[in-house]
Amino acid sequence: MGITKITPTVVESVMLPKLIRLDSNLYGAAFFLMKLLPARFILDRARDAGLLHEGSVIIETTSGTFGLALAMLCNLRNYKLFIVSDPAIDPPLQRRLEDLGATVEIVREPSPTGGFQQARLDRMNELRAAHPGHFWPAQYSNSHNPGSYAPFAELLTEAIGKIDCLVGTVGSGGSVCGTGSYLRLLFPQLKVVGVDTHGSVIFGQPDQKRMLRGLGNSLMPANVDHSVFDEIHWVDAASGLSATRALHRQHALYMGPTSGAAYLVARWWAKRNPDATVVVVLPDEGYRYQDTVYDDQWLQEQNLWLADLPEAPVVVKHPLEAETEWSCIDWNRHTYEQMMGVPFQV
Question: What is the pTM (predicted TM-score) of this model?
Answer without folding.
Answer: 0.95
